[in-house]
Amino acid sequence: MTELEPPTATHADPSAAQQAPQLLKARGLVKRLRSGDRELTVLNGVDFDVRAGEVVAILGPSGSGKSTLLGLLAGLDRPSEGEVALDGAELNQLDEDGLALLRRRLVGFVFQSFQLLANLTARENVLLPLELTGVPDAPERADALLLAVGLAERSHHYPSQLSGGEQQRVALARAFAPRPRLLFADEPTGNLDGATGEKVLALMLALQREHGTALVIVTHDLEVASCADRRVHLRDGRVISIEHGARAQGRHDGLEVLEPSPATDAAGALGSAGLPGTP
Amino acid sequence: MNLRTLLTLVARESRGSRGRLGFVVACLAVGVAAVTAVNALVDGIQSSVRGDARALLAADIALEARRPLPPELFAYLEARADTTLARVTELSAMASAPAGSRLVELKAAEPGYPFHGALVTEPAGLLPGALAADEALAAPELLAGLELQVGDALSLGGNAYRVVGRVVDEPDRVDFALTLGPRLFLSPAGLARSGLVQFGSRVNHRVLIDLPGEPPVRELEAFVRDLRRGVADAESLTTKTAADPTPGLSRTLGRIEDFLGLVALLSLLLGGAGVAQIVRLWMDARTPAVAVLRAIGMRPREVALVYLTNLAALALVGCGIGAALGAAAPATVGRLLPELVPTGLPFPWRAALRGVALGLATAAGFALPPLTAVWRVPPARVLRAEATPLAAPRSVRIGSFVALFAVVLAAAYAQSDRGWTAFAFTAGVFLLAGALAGGALCAARLAGHLPRERFGPTLRHGLAALARPNSGTPAAAVALGAGVLVVVAMGLVSTRLRREFLAGIPKDAPSVFLVDVQFDQSSSVRALLDAHGATGVDRTAVVMARLGAVKGTPVAQLLAGSEGRSRWALSREQRLTFADVLPPSNALVAAAPAPGLPQNTLWRDPARTEVSLEARFAEDLGVSIGDTVTFDVQGVPLELVVTTLREVDWATFRINFFVVVEPGALDGAPGWELVAARVDAAQEDALQTALARAHPNVSVLRLRPLLEKVTAVVERVASAVQVLGGAVTLTGVAILAVAALATAARRAREAALLKALGVTRAGVARLMAVEHALVGALAGTLGGAGAWILAYGFLDAVLDLPGSPALWVVPAAAAAGMALALVAGSLATARARNVPPLVSLR
User: Fold this and answer.
1) Which residue is closest to B384 within chain A, CA to CA?
2) Tens-place pLDDT, residues B203-212
């Protein structure tokens, strides 16, 4: 298991993060879903920004719209209203093929339920996005990543032959393989026990730092969120607060933990970073 | 995505679904085996039926005339490298012996005759072409009449000929219009030696043409067309081809070919429906994987291409297996039923390759619509399983259906070779599928509106499963229903055809015809018939005549532009008869108005000389009520007005006539009596001998060999229909079972959930059984009703066999569909019932 390095000041310093180029910009996102005869507004006017190399956590209770927001930001789904620009490309302007090609080029995913392809071995799962983009050194890259996540020995196993933690490590390797500029993680530790979850999280952050990838994590686990540069709190489809996170505070076991306080929760975040028009 | 990546992905994708995809291979293997087998069998049977047809002509093509054939014809034929010729000359002459003399029908044939069929002689193996100039082969009735034995001599035109053998059967003696006496075969040199062929003698000159191999109908027709273009005088020759030795026979064969082609195509489409059903289930099962592939950046068309390629590989395997199995069919059937398919046929490459091509096209065509599911899978499904499905782009939706339509159309065209038939068939298939889906949808709606609370929990669950949104009921009903439809329609049509064939020759059909009975011999002949136990004696006066003009236009002028049946109708020698009233087994189909007269009155206009024509014959001549036809009755023109058209039931084999003339019109014309009677086979020889002694001019025509020949062809065709029907029925049942299995497999997860909710295994089995039974009954009812309509339409409109099939097939099909769905369903859910309840929590 890779030991985590202490976070650098750059990561912890919001102003430093703001100096990085903007990678994702979302404005006025609304998502309405039909459920039987009713229409539910799952997201209601959300703005969201991500800068290169930044780690952002989206927090909130069940049903607050976290995963829906992630889907819209990643171009997996389309908003009912509002706009998302990813690396300068307006997602509304793209058709399904355009979205697919954009995801292929820029985006990686880690899911709560791993979402490995059951009929592919661990190595083939990692190879898949590389083959799609036509990377010449795909096998070498896949092997290096599997080594990095500690699964070189088990690279020819099928997902069903791997533990949950191992599957999520394969998913990490697959997500980082094409060197995405932005990684979306939906409850990446949600299906794992505490210890395994911590290890997977540490690994993800290590890879994120190594590749300089921006990371958007959806979670309801405060411990996971504490690793983020910014924490965006959602409730009932709205952003209720944004915390800037000194990732350096309250470290233990190689993880940095931020104890959220009502003060930061309520006021500290709003207007300080990430929102449009704020310095 | 480059080819290598595609193939890598295809190879990997196939891993997870090998069991399910085995279905695709099985489905296509069964479907392609059926198509290949049917095509190979049709080819085999056609070659044997065609062989029969060629035997009836003893050649591929025959040209004949009442005058010496023009030298330019032989120059033309001999210039063609692909023909082998044999000249045949026939004429009537008197043969004498010490015991008396008889009118015989002489036939001289060059070596080569018969090209097809066999001349049966005693001793065996004698051929007219190989006879010496003073040798002859005689029919047994001639030897009996002249009290001769093989080895004795008879005299022809003052020259002696030694009889070296008996002629028991000759292949091309089916047209008895010209038969005036027993047969006597000579060699061409022997005929020349007789000195009987002189200017003015009534001689029939014929040239038999043999073409290499087994020329298809098209080639025969092309040959005749070329001939008519190449030889100035060819228009006036009577032309017969193996494709059309007698118009009636070729019409029957044509219908049978249509029927078999249609059956083969339906079995193929049934396989296609199976593939569609499996692909749909495959896509259902792979939805999560498709969502992941799309999320990580694969375009829908790339995902679809992976699945389509995967499917193509499987289809190729299935088609290969199917073609191999199907190609073995003619040999297998030939071993079991040697009279149906000749043994030693070459490997049916054509049928096998055609089977593979049609199978691949069908697999692709039927796979495309369910593959559009790839476009509908939302990538957001990786986050939420219940993410709203996307709409496939209009181009994809419409394109996939256009492709399917095009594939069915192309397959139909490949099978039928006729554009309009192919289009009508394709439209019919889509309408039927639409009707099945619509019926199922209506039934599902209806199930939704039933007051389910009143039923027990088991039935309630079954009905709910039928009615719930996206239940797959319409798709399952279409697949199952289509299977039931094909099987039931096949059964109905082949049963009816077989019955029709076997009933075609009635038990009381006459076995002998007496030709040329003079009117003053009538009572004496009758007495002889009675003495030999003849029954069903039927006597009719006959006057021979030729058509002179139709609606005032001379026939010679009409012949120039005519083809096929119409040419045959114009040029044949007509037997005219007269009758006071409508003969039995005839029915009027059109008549000139005659107020005050009963509807069935044959003669309706006292002011004019009337004629009644058989309806089809009138159609071939192009005449209708009120038109005139002029007959040349041995030199005397006779103008008649058509006042009635009759439909004749030829299947009775009784004496019937195309042309019936008003009594009185033929008074004074030279005629004779045609007598039909049924005589025991054992009495036939004695009757013949007695008649030959008492009335040497009367020819006895034994109908039995001819009837047996016709019956053999008909029997062969009937068993072909039965064998092919059986093969397709098996295919239908197999694919039906696959469809039922696949449908049932959808419900595996639900079993786990039900068990988690506390339903016992037996309870789950009952719930599912009710659902399968309902879907099966629905599909069976729709399929049975569709089959009834299809069979009714096909029999009535295409085969001209009116009368509705039995209605009980609909409830029977419903019961069978239910039983099949139950069996297949419980087999398929056997594993599902054992799924631990925990599965539902995962």
Assistant:
1) A67
2) 788 999 998 8
